[in-house]
Amino acid sequence: MFPDATAPAVTSVFTAVLTEGPLSRVALARRLGLSSAAVTKAARPLIELGYLEELAATERTGPGAGRPASPLTVRAGREFFVGVKITGDELIGVLCDLRAEVRASAHRRLVAADVEHVLAELAELVDDLLGSYRDRAHRLGLAVSGDVDQATGLVRYSPFLHWRDVPLGELAARSTGLTVTVENDVKALTTAEQWFGEGVGADSFALVTVGAGIGCGLVVNGRLVSGAHGVAGEIGHVGFDVDGPACHCGSRGCVEAVAGTDAIVGRAREVSGRPGLTLDDAVALARAGDAPLGAVFARAGTAIGAGIAAVANLVGPARIVVSGEGLSAYDLFEPHIRAGFQRQAFGAAADCPLSIRPLPFEEWARGAATVSIKALVAS
Amino acid sequence: MFPDATAPAVTSVFTAVLTEGPLSRVALARRLGLSSAAVTKAARPLIELGYLEELAATERTGPGAGRPASPLTVRAGREFFVGVKITGDELIGVLCDLRAEVRASAHRRLVAADVEHVLAELAELVDDLLGSYRDRAHRLGLAVSGDVDQATGLVRYSPFLHWRDVPLGELAARSTGLTVTVENDVKALTTAEQWFGEGVGADSFALVTVGAGIGCGLVVNGRLVSGAHGVAGEIGHVGFDVDGPACHCGSRGCVEAVAGTDAIVGRAREVSGRPGLTLDDAVALARAGDAPLGAVFARAGTAIGAGIAAVANLVGPARIVVSGEGLSAYDLFEPHIRAGFQRQAFGAAADCPLSIRPLPFEEWARGAATVSIKALVAS
DNA sequence: GCACAATAATTTCCTTCGTCAAGTATTGAT
DNA sequence: ATCAATACTTGACGAAGGAAATTATTGTGC
């Protein structure tokens, strides 16, 4: 097992190697502000236990002379992790290695969202995924939308699942026999991006997800923001237009009331005069050049951009990743998101780089797996 | 002098006693997650150097029996600190004790904002304030609006002063002979609130200042938010009304474009038809029941509330303090700030307590002093 | 008044972690 | 072959904090 209740140096050496690729001991020492002796000592147990290994010295560093470095790298196959994103009608699962590379994936439709059914399906899904990795996988990460207490694995409230105070962590641990970590889905995805994606090395960054709802995960000073009252990252309910359409939250003109999927479909039906119009129809028509429908997406993108600008203005992240739950229409949004952002970002906040790209759907499950990796490392 | 390059326990014991009032060693141990032995050891040098002292055991704790605790408290008079807020036309200075209680205050009008003149006036002001405390004061904190690098004491850009890349820290250190800390004014005020005000004990909180501009200081996970690009807390440029009035930032309908002093005065002149109307006139008329002018303040308050809600939705602070640079019309704003906040705050974010109260003008200078206290403690 | 329980604070000893400084290892250059 | 340069390792040491015993100081039950 991983060195337990371990010295801070061991954790920081391992996370640095894990997230910032192969690094020599000297480089680690510089980066972490430790002596190289401390790095040597911290690395030893990690190598002995098979979590790290020395890479064959490849590229020479420095001016030329000197002993070549033997960079440390993680042995990705040392341990495996299952991650499952739980939605109201589907379980999406992946099996990842220590470096969060997906080795296998699978999903299952849910016919109901009651806890028993979900747990039964989850157990089967996990069993399928484990396959030949069974003996080298001990941890399961679960990602659920809504209010989740990651410390206890309690799902306080999940609107899409209609769950309230479900001790999901314990239940899943019992039914799978694995060590379980539960986290909010957006936070899980944010963690994945922080450790293995574009957030690597950034002290602060934000991840925005666009879909039915519009959410946001926030990392500030290197730590995930949780919100004292259980609410954080609710970019969907930042105001955009006081006089805009009513939002389900009771206000008007929230970003989500303009740019959420429902809002877009509703507005598209209005402007097209076709009450049966679907999102896909609207996307197709807008792509084909339908001006009124194009304007609907433009307005939505502008609203999202303004919401993102609010994040940039308030917390000033080093970079922002914008993605979607299968954001198929991303080509329609992107320019307007950028324009809305530029318009509303103040001063140097406008310099904040924006990455707008659709994430594969499995990415959410990978986020769940990442959370379980993090739980192992920072235990 | 204060124990230097000191063990983390010493710093945390001192800050805990400083901000959370008298505490027994056992209470400190519990609160800080240390053994009581460690607290005893950490407290000793602080007592020897005169920064802490034992309070006569006052109230019995626990069920009754047992040795009474002798709580530790800071010796406020051990050391004194000067804090000066620098504005475009005035220096406001205070002299504070270690507990940031104001012992003396003074101010000076500036006839010009060039660096030389400000430094000369500053030196005189500091000299005045030091008075009989001269031998027990070694630190000066300066608060300046704009982009300030706290670490180096460099004022990168201050729009009101028309300063750019002024090494204010060094210059003021030379002219006063004190150890100088420079900080952005809103951040300084936020630090004051975090250490000695309503932010005490909160892991995260926000301070919003209403005035010519609308600013915000943010503490998340116990640390001040700085912004990777030098921008953070720009609540004034959060969007409120896409179709609202043009803002000096280039966008439309920013909170500041609706609720900044200039915006209010402009709008008040419009609705009243009196081009010479001042802010005080508008306040007086609104208080007297002038409906159109009342609506101007109402709308401004609503916009501020919406901006505050954006903060609550995004970072979820434990509490929010709203104040102003001499926010005289605060009675006109308050109900609408609250209403705007409630309207736009999502879910549990609406539970975030809002304190709306005008701060005495000296408070800004006290913030500057607090920053220098913090610099001493966390050196 | 006297044991004694209860709580606070201190002391002593010990572990742990990380640094320092010296040494070993491995390369290219002369 | 020697030397400079760089990477890494080792072992002695010191600082910080913990565990447990000890001392200090109270109230309570008798």
UniProtKB/TrEMBL annotation, chains A, B:
InterPro entries associated with the record: ATPase_NBD, ROK, ROK_cs, WH-like_DNA-bd_sf, WH_DNA-bd_sf
Entries under SUPFAM superfamilies matching the protein: Actin-like ATPase domain, Winged helix' DNA-binding domain
Keywords carried by this UniProt record: Kinase, Transferase
Domain of life: Bacteria
UniProt-listed CDD domains: ASKHA_ATPase_ROK_CYANR (cd24073)
GO molecular function: kinase activity
Record flagged with keyword Transferase: yes
Keyword Plastid (UniProt): no
Pfam families, alphabetized: ROK (PF00480)
Family affiliation: Belongs to the ROK (NagC/XylR) family.
Protein name listed in UniProt: Sugar kinase
Source organism (scientific name): Paractinoplanes ferrugineus
